[in-house]
Amino acid sequence: MLRLQKFAGEKMIRPSAPVSDIRIPWADMKRLVLLPHEAPLPPLTPFLTSPQVDTAVGFLARHLCDYLVMRGLRFLAPATVHDSDAGEIIDPSRSNSFANFRLLEADLVTLSVDARIMKALGHKRGHGDPLSLLQYKEDQTYAPHYDFFDPQFPAHMPHLKEAGQRAKTALVYLNDDYESGHTRFHKADTSFRGAPGDLVAFANIGMDGNPDLQSLHSGEPPTSGIKWILSKWTREAALPL
After folding, report:
1. What DSSP assignment string belongs to 66-104?
2. pLDDT tens string 197-208
3. 94 near 80, Cβ under 8 Å?
4. Interacting residues of 47 by C-beta distance below 8 A, sequence separation 6+
5. What is the pLDDT of residue 34?
6. Model confidence over 48-62: pLDDT tens digits?
7. Residues 154, 118, 145, 142: is their CA dihedral positive or negative?
8. For the chain, what is the total number of helices (H) and then of strands (E)?
9. What CATH number does residue 114 fall under?
10. Is residue 52 part of a domain?
11. Structurally, how many domains does the chain consist of?
12. Is residue 89 part of a domain?
């Protein structure tokens, strides 16, 4: 506000030409504006073999990370889990917040980021659950869990029939101003934390299509600050619109 005070009383400078006379070079817009899914992909680097975990440094630009956080802020709600019998519920095992970028919450940028993730993981567009923004405040966590749907759980059967298993999970780290907050792979006794824009992707099922019990993982709590993560689950088939 103080910076604007020196301009008090001055008149706004009008453009030299009427707005109706301004011409936009639409033919050049594709060259001038590169959407995230059109940009070159960084290589995937193996991190673990059991479970299968790959990483990609600099998968998203920092300005996109900031945009995704700001875009999803107003949609945040308590995160849910898929119970074996009751279906989607709020449970003490998951204390963080999340926001899904479904049709009404999405925009051109979030849709393009979604397509970029699917392209990197080698899955068709539409073969995935909604892109999600995850917020972990201090001491909030997601206890050790699996992302696959368990065929033994009654409440999971409708999801399996709808679009098959959650084949892979992709996480993109969006900030770095927090302490701890790693993604831990318990069967491998190791953890991973990326810099803003880095991606980690892991398989939830084996080559035979069955759930991979080695994929047990958790979202560890930040000891200070707020952790922001982007999450995407791919599916074996397309979800109905």
Report:
1. HHHHHHHGGG-EE--EEETTTEEE--TTB--EEEEE-TT
2. 999 999 999 999
3. yes
4. 53, 54, 55, 192, 200
5. 85
6. 999 999 999 999 999
7. negative
8. 5, 16
9. 2.60.120.620
10. no
11. 1
12. yes
What range defines the domain where residue 78 resides?
A: 61-235
What pLDDT is recorded for position 21?
A: 65
Report the C-alpha gap between 98 and 95 in whole angstroms: 10
**What type of residue sits at position 188?**
A
| Distances in whole angstroms, Cα of residue 127 to Cα of each of 170, 176, 180, 231, 233 | 13, 30, 32, 14, 9
For residue 168, give the nearest of 35, 37, 56 by alpha carbon.
56
Burial 36-71 (b: 16+ CB within 10 A, else e): bbeeeebebeebbeebbbbbbeebbeeebbebbbeb
User: Is residue 31 domain-resident?
Assistant: no
pTM: 0.87
134-162 core/surface letters (b: 16 or more CB in 10 A; e: else) = bbbeeebbbeebbbbbeeeeebbeebbee
Residue 27's Cα: distance from chain center in Å?
Answer: 32
Q: Which of 194, 206, 171 is nearest to 49 (CA)?
A: 206
Q: Is residue 224 part of a domain?
A: yes
